[in-house]
Amino acid sequence: MQLDAPSVSETSWLHPSEWDILVLSTVIKVLLFPAYRSTDFEVHRNWLAITHSLPISQWYYDTSSQWTLDYPPFFAYFEKILSIPASVIDPKIVDLNNLNYDSWSIILYQRTTVIITELVLGAALLKFIRGAVDPPTQRVISASLFLHPGFLIIDHIHFQYNGFMFGILLWSILMARNGNKLASGILFAVLLNFKHIYMYLAPAYFIYLLRSFCLSPSGQVEIKNFLALANAVIAIFIASLAPFALMGQIHQLMSRLFPFTRGLNHAYWAPNAWALITAADRVLLRYAKSTGQIFHINMAGVSSTSRGLVGDTVFAVLPNIKPLHTFTITIALQSIVLIKLWFHPTYKSFLTALTLCGYSSYLFGWHVHEKAVLLILVPLSLLAAERHAYFRTFVIATVAGVFSLFPLLFTPAESVIEVIYSIVWFALLYIPLSKRVYEFPKSLSYVILDVLEKLYLGGFIFLQIFVASFPVLASWNLRRKIEESGNLNTSDSSAMEFLPLMVTSVYCAIGMVWGFMRLIFIYLNEDTTYQGQLSTIQ
Amino acid sequence: MTMADFPEPASLSRSKDAQQSSQSSHSIPGSSSTSTYASAGNPLVINTHNIRRPHHQQSPSSEIIAPTPRRHLLESNASHSWLHTPPLSPVSSRGISPTSTRATSPHSHLTRGTNGQQSFGSIMELSAPKLTIVKVAHTSESGMGRRWIRWSHKRGMRSSLIALIFLACVFLKLSLGLGSYSGENTPPMYGDYEAQRHWMEITIHIPIHQWYKYDLQYWGLDYPPLTAYVSWICGIAAHSINPTWVALDSSRGIETASSKLFMRASVVVFDALICVPALLLFSRTWFSTRSQRTQDLAFLLLMLHPALLLVDFGHFQYNSIMLGLTIMAMNFFATGQDLLGAVSFVLSLGFKQMALYYAPAIGSYLVAKCVLLGPANGGRLFVHLALTTVATFMLLFLPWIPPFSASPLLILDPIYRIFPFARGLFEDKVANFWCASNVVMKWKKWADQEILVKAAAVLTLLGFLPSVIVVGKAAWDLKVWNEPAATKVVESNGESEPEGSSSHTQILPLLPYALLNSSMSFFLFSFQVHEKTILLPLMPLMLLFSGATSDSEVYSWGALGSNVAVFSMWPLLKKDGLALSYFSLTLLWNRLIGHDPIKLIYTAFPFNSYVHLFSAGVYAAVISLHLLELIVAPPARYPDLFPVLNVLISTPVFVCLWLWSIKCCVQVSWAITGPLAFGEAENEHSKRSSTTLSDVNERRFSFVAKSDRTRAASLGHARGKRVRRSSTHSATGSATSTAIPPSSSVFRGNAGSNFVEERVRAYPE
């Protein structure tokens, strides 16, 4: 972790400090092998079995497990490749009927594949250091991304392949930075065919590539570039979808990829704008109940979301939200950003716009999962060392976003581990960078803002204490009540069961929304004469 | 009280300097590592005027004096003084401040001294006529730990580093705890985990006199009372959280996720309460004359040692409490608080009887100190020590002693349980003399149990005798009670405790080697040794190792010893399902210390030392054994083939370490009992210093001088800057700087070997 070293010489391809990070991260990930695994682990095992034992025509029709294949074709091909060594190691892994198989061999195999495929992320991050304006700082940022608690929680404990996917995304961003926009577009098209959630970011890519690659600065169409990009992207989609199109399965595939039967919020509300509005609805309902005020109360909503169950969210007091509303708001916000991007199609502007596109989709999208917060945090990290304003936005979004991932792990040991890891990670990132980017506050209002933001960040400590102590206090309370009354009355406790989750979600949502407002304000108002570190690379 | 507590008068000028130095350190990467000596770890010294600029500085000087301005620095220049934000670079950043080049004239010193912006250290340096910097041995930056510490110090994490290391270790320990433990899912007896949990269960549910009697077949309590008390505290905590975890009898073999977390957390908590502070204090007291980076690195290495991590947080035991208490005792000895040290060591014994392995070394050290102090002081110290020790033991066994128990014979219950002589010579395969030689001479067939016990006792005694003799002889050679003047000074300086006058603990550097010698001889030769017991000899070895530079002998032996110690526990860890943790933590540790066994094998010829060749051979054997075990199943005739091979590889290394510890004891004792009677010279020096100093500095200086003496004498590496400065200050130009290190190199790793060279160097030219 010798991050102040001079830039690495041409001959050695890995700096000792980079080896250190690799060794450290691998050791940590290997130690986490026996950790809790979510159902996603079984989902991916089932996909290995589907792709290995069924012909391609059956992949998107198989329902032998409830965890059907619902990722785009490239990911299915990826699973197909992974299933070949798996069948050699342990044939039971790829047995379609061997549901919930969790022997040591499958744990070892699947966890190892996550670590190995994550090296794509590592390679992309290394390349970011190599051409950076300020390699020591970029090295801190790269190391922080490689060791990001989001990846640790989601990939290495919960189980998914986000590290690999974000590796491709960062590779694509890197190509944009290095001026190879064709490669950038191609890599993004590949990524879309791995996991379609990256469509959140597609508008920024579209505008950026159109304006800066397909059009000349004066507005002329660069027909050669345009055709090259269009053909390449079409070729990738053909490679991905053609087998299924030929078999006439496109409709089935799309219905798997875009299930619109889910509700506005996920079981645990992702900390976005809808979480705030849902919470406001709950508060208003309580208020209406207690004061007897005349509201139009939708009785279906009274028992709806407070229980934290999957299903449609129905508001009791506020007007209900339809998918159309969420799309309208998202697209409206994105278009503001994209207009700015159209007129300033630089790399840094693109990176900010990319973040903002992901951000607005996350905040206002339909049925957003909390894991999608990585779509914001990863590109935002690349901007962290720009100016103090970016850094502060990054800090708020990161703390709120990582904290919002904590409820993903509910087993006792893992929920302690993730908190400690995140604290250490954050300190190692915050202390060097905050000194690097510090700027003197310009006026009193900045000072007040600074204090308020620090208070908000400090509040997470108390939130964590509350969340951690709540179950213990609740069980003590319950035990006392049983001792007092002698009979078990569960209705009282179960109503409060989701309180920590709700409080977490709302508190994080405040930070996420504020971070979005900060970032969009900075982006739209940024002093154009300022040439930051990233802007110097065209 | 340490030097770091000292008030810091020059914070304003410091921050400015530090800013600029941080700018320069961006441009001169070389400067930071070269002036190894300058202001390291000493917040007092800011202006390092007299330090010669290192030779191999690459960058042009214009870049240093006028670095390329950066945006945020220009903007934030004003803000630092106003907002009191921390400086961009810590004061210990070793890049030489650009201001120091223009402030070399004595005149500028004086003017700066008047407006109170001058640091205490610079006053000391001002009066020093000429300071010759002897460049300390080349420090290789090869280890990840060293790189990491350097980076975090430079990036402003100096103050929070200890907390971060601690938190990171807690994370690592808990993630290690996610894995399996001893006896998981193996009814009906389970393993060590269940034993510890069972003790919590019986201590809270059963009257105290029945503790050592209850259902002995199912993990009856067989550790001394402090373990029982700790179990009792844990049991109370567990009972208040969830009574089913420790319900009497019905909770046997409970393996729920939350009870597992509780058990794991209890180890982490007691480790954090006892072992971590002990290690931190160790790095601060024993390495007090070293830079803060070295101290932090030592702490990091000691915290992350795989053997203790794997046994305590993987396999499940509370060894860190016992080891932590012994280390605490060493810290107390180093600061001259022998009574507290004795209490601490008795507590360690009272936690696990295995701490007896250290008893010969600690006992001989304390007796030797009494000898050193002479009949009057030493005798008093001896009586005090004896009384304290007995009182602590009484306190530990209080419930089994008559006023509290029905019969005096009850004391025998714990005693019989603690010392199980009825068991065999050795149980599983353990890498000691008996088990290794059992391959050729079947001891149990040859001889009777009683004879073997006696043979083991005699061999163990012979094993640790050298260190006892060496310590005793060193004390006899150094005894000061023939000179009444010196004794008087001692009495006047020893403030509250006359026996605590630490200027006489010249034999202290012998202590770690003596500990290594005695615990290793117990491990190799004594009766009923378990493979986990290698942790005990490993502890002093690691304490020595943590401060060693990577080109020293201690480093080579320490790295080899630690890796082989972990390897010797491989059969146990494999059985516990900790194979992955074993490999990953060993990898991390070797990366941390910058040790590469594979490279060592490649570069075996031509070798640069016999240790190198030996290590290469051992590592080659270890790696091939692991590969063999992975590929081939053991033949049916010899199911224990791999554990036996493991023993045969490990035992020679431990025997060599034992011999090496004897060699080191002799070397160190020779170094500290050399021809110069520096003890009295020092006392004289301190008397003089208190009379020649000005009123302003008197109090501070006497403190500094005293603390210098304390450490110089106690540790023996007074070659550090503080002593040099204080001596040159007190007697400008006179040749009294005889505060010569008795064995300054002991903790740099070359025990006594380059002592003569140093002594020559230390003489005033």
TrEMBL record, chain A:
It is a multi-pass membrane protein. Its EC number is 2.4.1.-. Its main location: endoplasmic reticulum. It is found in: Endoplasmic reticulum membrane. InterPro entries: Glyco_trans_ALG6/ALG8 (IPR004856). Keywords: Endoplasmic reticulum, Glycosyltransferase, Membrane, Transferase, Transmembrane, Transmembrane helix. The chain crosses the membrane at residues 153-174, 186-206, 226-246, 349-368, 389-410, 416-434, 455-478, 498-524. Pathway: Protein modification; protein glycosylation. It catalyses: an alpha-D-Glc-(1->3)-alpha-D-Man-(1->2)-alpha-D-Man-(1->2)-alpha-D-Man-(1->3)-[alpha-D-Man-(1->2)-alpha-D-Man-(1->3)-[alpha-D-Man-(1->2)-alpha-D-Man-(1->6)]-alpha-D-Man-(1->6)]-beta-D-Man-(1->4)-beta-D-GlcNAc-(1->4)-alpha-D-GlcNAc-diphospho-di-trans,poly-cis-dolichol + a di-trans,poly-cis-dolichyl beta-D-glucosyl phosphate = an alpha-D-Glc-(1->3)-alpha-D-Glc-(1->3)-alpha-D-Man-(1->2)-alpha-D-Man-(1->2)-alpha-D-Man-(1->3)-[alpha-D-Man-(1->2)-alpha-D-Man-(1->3)-[alpha-D-Man-(1->2)-alpha-D-Man-(1->6)]-alpha-D-Man-(1->6)]-beta-D-Man-(1->4)-beta-D-GlcNAc-(1->4)-alpha-D-GlcNAc-diphospho-di-trans,poly-cis-dolichol + a di-trans,poly-cis-dolichyl phosphate + H(+). Belongs to the ALG6/ALG8 glucosyltransferase family. This is Alpha-1,3-glucosyltransferase. It comes from Lentinula lateritia. The lineage of its organism: Eukaryota, Fungi, Dikarya, Basidiomycota, Agaricomycotina.
TrEMBL record, chain B:
Keywords: Endoplasmic reticulum, Glycosyltransferase, Membrane, Transferase, Transmembrane, Transmembrane helix. Its EC number is 2.4.1.-. Pfam families: Alg6_Alg8. The keyword Glycosyltransferase applies. It comes from the Eukaryota. It is an enzyme of class 2 (transferase). Residues 90-118 have a biased composition (Polar residues). Belongs to the ALG6/ALG8 glucosyltransferase family. Pathway: Protein modification; protein glycosylation. The lineage of its organism: Eukaryota, Fungi, Dikarya, Basidiomycota, Agaricomycotina. It is a multi-pass membrane protein. It is found in: Endoplasmic reticulum membrane. Residues 718-727 have a biased composition (Basic residues). Residues 18-35, 728-745 have a biased composition (Low complexity). This is Alpha-1,3-glucosyltransferase. It comes from Lentinula lateritia. Residues 1-41, 84-118, 712-750 are annotated as: Disordered. InterPro entries: Glyco_trans_ALG6/ALG8 (IPR004856). The chain crosses the membrane at residues 160-181, 261-282, 294-315, 321-343, 355-375, 381-401, 451-472, 610-628, 640-660.
